Amino acid sequence: MIDFTPLARGHFMSRLRQQARYIHHADAVQQGELVRLVERAALTAVGRRYDFSTVRTYHDFASRVPLCRYEDMQPLIMRALKGEAGVLWPGRTYNFAQSSGTSDGRSKYIPITRESFRWNHYQGASDVVAHYLNLNPSSRIFSGKALILGGSFANNLTGLKPGVRVGDLSASLIDNINPLAGMFRVPRKHIALMEDWNEKLPALVEASIGEDITNLSGVPSWFLTVLKRVLERTGAQCIHEVWPHLEVFFHGGIAFGPYREQYERLCDMSRMHFLDTYNASEGFFAVQSAWESTAMLLLLDVGVFYEFIPIEETDSDQPQAYPIWEIEAGRTYELVITACNGLWRYRLGDTVAVEQLAPAKIKIAGRTRAFINAFGEELMVHNADESIAHAATVTGAQVLNYTAAPIFATQRQRGRHQWLVEFAQPPADMERFNQVLDERLRQVNSDYDAKRTGDIFLGPPLITVAEPGLFDRWLAATGKLGGQRKVPRLANDRHLIDAMLAMSQ
């Protein structure tokens, strides 16, 4: 295949030059985005409710529109899903991303409007490539094809209006991709959108092994399974024996740290790069822009207006949200978005650590509702991800998947955390793995360390080894296998881990 990278590079570099101009003007860029969004939606049901036509400033907007969660917006979203036009965004919305469940266990349906395809998701994907080309001047990424791991339109809804598609975000992105971009990706659409992963996985392998793959895009846990199947099918020891021109994995959805060592074992690292992205069902928000740091550059002009709630206020009945020009580096916030998919002051449930300003760079810190604080330890997902990755590295283990939950104290025993872990390669000494995990958690989380001091309030972790495939079986049983679905890393109660243990043989 002809290498189109030199021709494409000019286009992508012009985009980076555009971004560079607003590095020190985040306030102006973000205020411009807010005006664009409010003006476009002035005649929608939401726009009329809050009189968007007279909104002139951020203060006008924030004083009228309340902060909300999915449960608050669900009635309006369901009206749009049933075909009503002009509810949250002008016109009819035909695509909805089915995402993880709400507090009552049901799925969420996130609108994907024409503008969110164009302004946000595809622009964000383009920005990822732009930053990668900037970081790797010798790239030949367009000399071959991208292997993109997508989901499907499987859902449990009935009576959908003609043309309405509900499923994984990746399914909608693949289904609506520009045909020109489609020339540079595999597999073909009918394979990419298969619902049954028992059929889809071997089809993916067969469709990809004969192609010249230069880049991968997807969730690390799922892609690891695909790559291992490719190696089994071909008898190769290294993925670069199959795809010698493979040069980058654009990953997102979950933390890459626990999987990095396994990818490094499968790849020729002299030829391979990894680039982190923040691409959620609700929008494409950030991309890693430097090799020396995994902090991600916040994308400010992609149809999203950001607000930030200080982490200490997330449980408040009336938390205070701040625009980007009022936040501080070094603090952790809950992220709030107003976006061109019709979500208005929407609390994502994600927390981000602001690493720096001008330009604004963030790291995903975890979920506001995915944590363990049963004993005042305030264990967040980023603490858990970092610590289990460290324990695996020190002990030579390879972790495929994990979840953790509290074991509550009784009259006869202290409380502790139970970690259900599926290993690709278990540690030679499980007690040592447990010890290293505990020590690292104490290093990265002062609250956890305080509760562990003297073994008085909190006992050491309990590691329970999951049998092979347990996490996939649980996902399949809950209708969440495939696409970008994932097991919550932490839970503040035992409903998830007990359900998984009950499935164990």
| Secondary structure category | alpha/beta
Number of H- or I-type helical stretches: 18
Query: What is the share of helical residues?
Result: 25-40%
Amount of beta strand = 15-25%
Radius of gyration: 23 Å
Uncertain segments: 101-105
Number of DSSP strands? Answer: 20
Arrangement of strands in the largest sheet: 5-3-6-7-8-9-10-15-14-13-11-12
Structure description:
This protein is an alpha/beta fold and 505 residues long. Helix content is 37%, strand content 23%. It contains 18 helices and 20 strands. It has helices at 5-21, 26-40, 45-49, 58-64, 70-81, 114-135, 169-175, 179-182, 189-192, 197-208, 220-234, 239-242, 257-266, 381-395, 430-444, 446-452, 470-477, 495-503, and strands at residues 95-99, 108-112, 145-148, 165-167, 185-186, 213-218, 248-251, 273-280, 283-290, 293-298, 304-310, 322-323, 332-339, 346-356, 361-367, 371-372, 379-380, 398-407, 416-425, 462-465. β7, α13 and β8 (273-280) form a beta-alpha-beta unit. The protein is globular and about 65 Å long. Residues 101-105 have low confidence and may be disordered.
Notable characteristics:
37% helix; alpha/beta; 18 helices; 505 residues
Topology:
Blueprint: H1 5-21, H2 26-40, H3 45-49, H4 58-64, H5 70-81, E1 95-99, E2 108-112, H6 114-135, E3 145-148, E4 165-167, H7 169-175, H8 179-182, E5 185-186, H9 189-192, H10 197-208, E6 213-218, H11 220-234, H12 239-242, E7 248-251, H13 257-266, E8 273-280, E9 283-290, E10 293-298, E11 304-310, E12 322-323, E13 332-339, E14 346-356, E15 361-367, E16 371-372, E17 379-380, H14 381-395, E18 398-407, E19 416-425, H15 430-444, H16 446-452, E20 462-465, H17 470-477, H18 495-503
Parallel strand pairs: 1-4, 3-5, 3-6, 6-7, 7-8, 19-20
Antiparallel strand pairs: 1-2, 8-9, 9-10, 10-15, 11-12, 11-13, 13-14, 14-15, 16-17, 18-19
